[in-house]
């Protein structure tokens, strides 16, 4: 009797192991097919990219992802992304993945744990990888470190307490961005001027609203702003409907409670 129980137990374990190996092989095959199509993008992208099995085990990751989390590819292979995620996010991530599996794509925010133990916020844009037969075989994800954006948002909240009424009621278009130019907040006048809602503007880089011929001048103006703390210049904007119009910008740096620059505040 005991021998039969032991045999049944070993058979079950073997079946589970076989299933896991099959899932992993399936994901690895899908990864190879994906890399054949997008190999250059995978290796040269400025975004961190990871590919996992449907259960979350990392199969491949580009250099930016490795640098971001502090692990080598060899260390990451076979590691479940839950190990890189603080426990408080596990439930939210499980729900996000459930929604993702039904839609085939999804975006959400959580935190990561680096190899050295530091915790930092990330934004993930994930998509379902399918095999040649169209069956789900793995998951690909662009992962972005959003530490600076979160710091800027914190600075915005501090600024809001002082200037929210002025910000909302001002007849001038006002936007608050990260140091890299991603819009964090914008008043109604700015939204009306650009033709976008606040939801559409959040996370959008101001370069997207600027004709290419002005990018070089704007880069020089921003450099001056960083050294002086303020600046004024003229350029053009592109509305949502595609029309181009001239604007004058008066920009200044917003600092956090420690006096460090977190974002620039632009009035248009």
Automatic annotation (TrEMBL):
Listed InterPro entries: Biofilm_reg_signaling, PAC, PAS, PAS-assoc_C, PAS-like_dom_sf
CDD domains assigned: PAS (cd00130)
Coiled coil: none
Occurrences of domain PAS (ranges): 34-104, 159-229
Matches recorded under PROSITE patterns: PAC (PS50113), PAS (PS50112)
Domain PAC: 106-158
Family annotation (PANTHER family): BIOFILM ARCHITECTURE MAINTENANCE PROTEIN MBAA, DIGUANYLATE CYCLASE DGCP
Protein's UniProt name: PAS domain-containing protein
Source species: marine sediment metagenome
């Amino acid at each position: 009797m005991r021998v039969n129980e032991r045999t049944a137990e070993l058979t079950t374990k073997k079946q589970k192991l076989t299933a896991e190996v099959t899932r992993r092989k399936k994901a690895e095959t899908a990864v190879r097919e994906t890399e054949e199509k997008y190999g250059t993008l995978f290796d040269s992208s400025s975004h961190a990219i990871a590919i996992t099995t449907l259960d979350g085990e990392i199969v491949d990751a580009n250099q930016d992802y490795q640098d971001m989390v502090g692990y080598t590819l060899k260390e990451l292979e076979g590691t479940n992304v839950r190990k890189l995620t603080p426990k408080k996010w596990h439930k939210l991530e499980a729900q996000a993945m459930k929604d993702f599996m039904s839609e085939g794509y999804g975006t959400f925010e959580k935190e990561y744990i680096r190899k050295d133990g530091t915790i930092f916020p990330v934004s993930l844009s994930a998509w379902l990888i399918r095999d040649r037969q169209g069956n789900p075989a793995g998951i690909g994800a662009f992962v972005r470190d959003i530490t600076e954006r979160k710091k800027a948002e914190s600075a915005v909240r501090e600024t809001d307490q002082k200037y929210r009424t002025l910000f909302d009621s001002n007849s001038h278009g006002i936007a608050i961005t990260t140091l890299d130019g991603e819009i964090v907040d914008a008043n109604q006048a700015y939204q009306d001027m650009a033709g976008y809602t606040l939801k559409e503007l959040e996370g959008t880089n101001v370069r997207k609203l600027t004709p290419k011929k002005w990018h070089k001048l704007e880069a020089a103006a921003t450099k001056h702003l960083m050294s002086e703390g303020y600046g004024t210049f003229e350029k053009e904007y592109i509305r949502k409907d595609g029309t181009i119009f001239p604007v004058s910008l008066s920009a200044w740096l917003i600092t956090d409670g420690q006096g460090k620059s977190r974002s620039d505040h632009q009035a248009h």
